[in-house]
C-alpha cells in the first residue's frame, strides 16, 4: 500500500481543511479505499476485478487544474479547474480487470491504479466503492480503439471514459491487430467478452482495419455473428465504421480506397457495415464519415496532429490528441442516438 508520509498528510490536512471522507471497506476486510492509498501523484487500491465508483474532491488554497487517468493510460476525468480556496467534487465509474489493457497483452498491476495529473494538480480527497447498477459500454475493436500501452499511441476507446460520468463504465476489449476473423476466433477475445454482457449493456463494434484479406461474404457474416451474439445476451449492439486513414489525394480529399478502408479484394468495409446495420436494424455510428469530414476540414498540415505522422510517419494510428477528438465524436453520437442517458455524459 502506498501512503502519504506524516509531513505530507499533515500539510494536506492544513491546506485543504477537510475531514477525510469516512473510509469504505473493501470486500473481504481489505484496507480502506480512501486518500491514505495515495501519494501526491498516484493512488493504488487493492481491489479485486469489478466495476468501481470513484469520487474525487479537487482543489486547494491556490487555483488548481487536475485530471485523472488510470489502469492502462485510460483517461477517466478530464482536466478540471478549481478556483483558489474552493473544492470541486467529481465522480466516475471504472472497469477493473485482468489483463487491465488489451486482452492479449500484459496482465498489468492488480487492483485499481490512478494517476493524478493536469497542469496544476490538487487531489484533496478520494473515495472508491463497489459500483451498484452500473451500465457497461463494451468496446470490440482494433488498435485504433484499444487501450494502447505506451506513448505516443492512443486509441479512441482509451479516451472515451473521460466523457462519461458515474454510472457508466467503459470496458475496452479492443485489441491490436485484430480483424473480424481473428476476434471471433481467439478465445481471449469474443469468447471472453460475450459472457460478460448483461441485459442493457452497449457493445460498440469497430473492426475493419485488419480485414485486409477478408472477402465481403465472410466480413458481412462475421459482423452478423457479433450482432447476434450481443443480442443473445440481452445487450445492445452498435456498429461503428472505422476511422479514416490520413491519406490525401492531390485535391485535398480522402476519396480513395486507402483512406476509406477498401481492402485489396475491393471490399468497402464502411459500406458493408452500413448495410449490416440497416438490415439488422442496429444503431450505426458512422465514424468514417465523421472523421473524413474532420480530417479534410483540417487539411494536409492541420490533420497531422490527429495522427502519429510527426512521430512515426503513421497515418493510421492516432495521437492522444487525435484519440481524444475522435472519442468526442463517439460521445456526440451516443447522445444524439439516445444510446446513453444525457445526464451520464460530460459535454464540452
TrEMBL record:
The keyword Cell inner membrane does not apply. It comes from the Bacteria. Residues 1-26 form the signal peptide. The keyword Oxidoreductase does not apply. Keywords: Hydrolase, Signal. Residues 140-291 form the SGNH hydrolase-type esterase domain. InterPro entries: Galactose-bd-like_sf, RhgT-like, SGNH_hydro, SGNH_hydro_sf. Belongs to the 'GDSL' lipolytic enzyme family. This is Lysophospholipase L1-like esterase. The lineage of its organism: Bacteria, Bacillati, Actinomycetota, Actinomycetes, Kitasatosporales.
Amino acid at each position: 500500500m502506498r501512503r502519504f508520509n506524516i509531513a505530507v498528510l499533515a500539510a494536506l490536512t492544513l491546506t485543504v481543511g477537510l475531514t477525510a471522507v469516512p473510509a469504505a471497506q473493501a470486500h473481504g476486510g481489505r484496507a480502506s479505499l480512501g486518500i491514505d492509498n495515495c501519494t501526491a501523484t498516484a493512488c493504488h487500491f487493492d481491489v479485486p476485478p469489478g466495476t468501481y465508483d470513484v469520487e474525487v474532491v479537487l482543489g486547494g488554497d491556490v487555483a488548481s487544474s487536475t485530471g485523472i487517468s488510470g489502469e492502462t493510460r485510460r483517461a477517466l476525468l478530464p482536466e478540471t479547474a478549481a478556483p483558489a480556496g474552493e473544492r470541486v467534487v467529481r465522480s466516475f465509474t471504472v472497469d477493473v480487470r485482468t489483463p487491465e489493457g488489451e486482452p492479449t497483452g500484459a496482465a498489468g498491476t492488480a487492483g485499481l491504479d490512478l494517476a493524478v495529473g493536469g497542469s496544476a494538480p490538487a487531489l484533496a480527497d478520494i473515495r472508491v466503492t463497489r459500483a451498484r447498477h452500473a451500465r457497461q459500454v463494451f468496446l470490440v475493436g482494433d488498435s485504433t480503439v484499444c487501450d494502447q500501452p505506451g506513448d505516443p499511441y492512443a486509441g479512441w476507446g482509451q479516451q472515451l471514459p473521460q466523457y462519461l460520468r458515474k454510472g457508466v463504465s467503459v470496458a475496452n476489449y479492443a485489441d491490436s491487430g485484430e480483424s473480424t476473423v481473428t476476434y471471433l476466433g481467439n478465445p481471449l477475445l469474443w469468447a471472453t467478452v460475450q459472457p460478460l454482457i448483461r441485459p442493457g449493456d452497449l457493445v460498440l463494434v469497430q473492426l475493419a482495419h485488419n480485414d485486409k484479406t477478408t472477402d465481403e461474404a465472410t466480413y458481412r457474416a462475421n459482423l452478423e455473428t457479433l450482432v447476434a451474439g450481443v443480442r443473445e445476451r440481452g445487450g445492445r449492439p452498435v456498429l461503428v465504421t472505422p476511422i479514416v486513414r490520413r491519406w490525401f489525394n492531390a485535391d485535398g480529399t480522402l476519396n480513395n480506397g486507402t483512406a476509406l478502408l477498401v481492402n485489396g479484394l475491393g471490399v468497402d468495409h464502411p459500406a458493408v457495415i452500413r448495410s449490416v446495420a440497416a438490415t439488422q436494424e442496429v444503431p450505426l455510428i458512422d465514424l468514417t464519415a465523421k472523421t473524413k469530414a474532420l480530417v479534410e476540414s483540417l487539411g494536409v498540415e492541420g490533420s497531422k496532429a490527429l495522427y502519429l505522422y510527426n512521430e512515426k510517419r503513421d497515418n493510421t494510428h492516432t495521437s492522444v490528441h487525435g484519440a481524444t477528438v475522435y472519442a468526442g465524436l463517439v460521445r456526440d453520437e451516443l447522445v444524439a442516438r439516445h444510446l446513453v442517458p444525457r445526464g451520464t455524459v460530460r459535454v464540452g
